[in-house]
Amino acid sequence: MNPAYPVYIISKSRYEIRQTSDALERMGVPHYLVVEEQEFNNYTNYVNKSKILVLPKKYLDDYDTFWQDDDPKKGSGPARNFCWEHSLQEGFKRHWLMDDNIEAFHRLNRNIKAVVDSGTILKIMEDFVDRYENVFIAGPNYYSFVKSTDSVPAFKKNTRIYSCLLIQNDIPYRWRGRYNEDVDLSLRVLKGGGCTIQFNAFLQGKVTTQRMKGGNSEIYAGGTKRKSRMLVDMHPDVTKLVWRFSRWHHHVDYRPFEGNNLIKKSGIEIPRGVKEYGMKLSKKPEGPERLAGKVFSMIDSFRSVKFPIYIPSKQRSNLQQTTGVLDKNNLAYYLVVEPQDYEDYLQHYPDHQIIRLEKNNQGIFYVRNKCKEHSKATGAAYHWQIDDNIKDFCIRKNDKTVGQDVTNILSSVEYIMTQFTNVGISGLTHTAFAFSKKTHLSINRQAYSCVLVNNELGDLYWRDNVVEDTDYSLQVLSSGYCTLIFNKLMIAKGAASKNSGGNSNSDEWRMNRAVGLQKKWPDTFKIKKRAGLVRVLPSRVWGTFLQTPKKIVSFRRKSDGNTSD
Predict the structure, then answer these.
(1) Per DSSP, what are the bridge partners of residue 394?
(2) What distance, in Å, lies between the first and last C-alpha atoms of the chain?
(3) What residue spans of 103-221 are helical by DSSP H?
(4) pTM for this entry
(5) What is the pLDDT of residues 238-289, one digit of tens each?
(6) Domains defined for the chain, CATH in brackets
(7) Quick check: 473 and 538 in contact, CB under 8 A?
(8) At 59, is the secondary structure helix, strand, or coil?
(9) Which residue has the higher pLDDT, 4 or 244?
(10) Alpha helix (H) ranges present in 298-405?
(11) Sign of the C-alpha dihedral, residues 177, 182, 185, 191?
(12) What separation in angstroms does the CA of 327 have from each of 64, 300, 322, 407, 411?
């Protein structure tokens, strides 16, 4: 079942990702992508032309940014107004307007958040609001704002609606403002006596604002104070500027609108009982967790590492630990070293195993990027980057950590990762954390120390003056790709500061990297000293990425010819 009203997705510089469009395609929901003229050709490389609408320039020229300043950026408001007018010209009473970074839609029922595979929930929301005279905006809540363990009502009345909106076309408003335009529109509707409906029974899995490149990211790049300040200037009677969670926020008081009551249309009879609209709860297809379980049960049969291995190393020519483990298993690898260390490493390793960098002391980010460039030049689809201080590779069996042939571990990771089209990086867990991991793997967490990198993400690189592995994982996730962290496949290594060489640097250096990470990902990380060392504390940001690995292929057990799907 599909919605009765047209669906528009406003999109900018995300032609390669298209998360909302992909989600609607999987659901079989017709929709339009609205893009700016200069990006039309880019989008046609991925999307049928019939689904693309080009934003006319007059909507950019005529748009009310609210603040009359010199900033040329208009935000998404012009495209939003175009969608509104387009739906009116097509003769529709309402229209759907969606951001372009919604990964999936869900139904919350009996404490189960179930992914939906059709447009039925959109039709249900339409039918609900069409019962009333004065529901002017409606839409689903964010997936991350509603816990499956909470007891919540099916919907909330008279609050802001964002990111996925069902808008009544004949209301006397249009989009305005460079920031927070969805909150502004909701408030104007409420101040005019209308109602809004925010559904908790239906949810949108949306990437957190500013986590993905493209879209409005450049608009918000200057911090949160400006966008919050604009909303306060728009609605000083119900909005104030507050300092929370180490940044500026707007706080809106929606209590004045509690008296905006729903007005049911005459002649409408609401039947008793539950109407499921044909929806049925079904079991998910096999995902990476189940596949990992199968692979780990026969891990000894995985005996071929396909992708090149790179070991960034500095001033540890005679202190190598990782190479000793790999040598025992006759695995080929490259040591990536600086010019100043090259001769030292030549005394211990053959020349063909050493990649000599062009410059000294450029930082680990520079080395990692060179590894990626070298692997891509060889035509490799993936490559390994492994720290030089790994003492052993292990597997978790029956609640015990036991040593495991490194070839088994690396080749099984390669097998699992390559079954999916959208995994950007995979990593192994440190043995120190193994006791707390109950599942075979975690999705969308940080990868570090021993990682398999997807070279398809050609525009992503490690960056300077940040905690580079954390930053790279977040870049991958913000691009719409997944990360896989193998909880039962582990590395044993010493603390980074225990050995000379490598990344053993001063507290000042560590603090600068931590502060740099905070700047790249505002309001995401906290810094603290523990055991005399600078630490970046675990963050809730990892739970905001909801994408899942796609397109699993059949698992074939070559040993006996049996196949299980």
Answers:
(1) 403, 490
(2) 29
(3) 120-129, 181-191, 217-220
(4) 0.61
(5) 999 998 766 788 899 999 999 999 999 999 888 888 889 999 888 765 678 8
(6) 7-257 (3.90.550.10), 288-497 (3.90.550.10), 505-543 (no CATH)
(7) no
(8) helix
(9) 4
(10) 322-328, 342-346, 364-377
(11) negative
(12) 66, 18, 9, 11, 16
